[in-house]
Amino acid sequence: MRTENQVKSKMNELLMQKKMLLSRIESAEPDSPVHASLSAQLLRIEDMLTMLEWVLDEPTGSYHM
Hints:
- By secondary structure, the protein is mostly helical.
- It has helices at 4-27, 33-56.
- Helices cover 74% and strands 0% of the residues.
- It contains two helices and no strands.
- The protein starts with a helix and ends in a 9-residue tail after the last helix.
């Protein structure tokens, strides 16, 4: 299990990658394979960020009522 600081550090790393990808997407030609690849990478990073946010803000309670 990772510590809270490790999770936050990974989140910061992913946020920096996201910013870099966004600028590369802006400069890529729309509807090009490069643009599509960068967009797919961006989706994966956003998914990872969402999972890490969930780890930090773990829900309480039960899923089964």
